[in-house]
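Narrative of activities, Objective 1.

The group set out to show that a structural description can be obtained from nothing but a protein's sequence at a throughput compatible with the screening campaign. Below is one input-output pair from the validation batch, recorded exactly as produced.
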Amino acid sequence: MEEFAEKQAEIFSIFSNAKRVLIFWQLDGAEMSVNDIANAIDSSTQNTSQHLRLMKSRGILTSRRDGKTIYYSIADSELGKYCQLIHQVYLMRILKVEGVDLPR
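Output recorded for this entry:
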């Protein structure tokens, strides 16, 4: 059980940076080049590349090369579903704090 907890903590640590979360959201169901990702998250190509390398080394992303261009995508669709669930829960909490009545 301890090993499982450590693996989960490692995955969560990847998402402790807002730029990496934005990268993940951009890649949800898509494959994008480094330049396209950098433009989408308003970051430099160099900084974006560093985040992408880290995420790939932890098994979050996969990549493929086409000539000089590297394309990234989410390595595991189940992880994408899990992160979408966390995002939805967070949005619901925001709406509750703002006093929006949620359907039951």
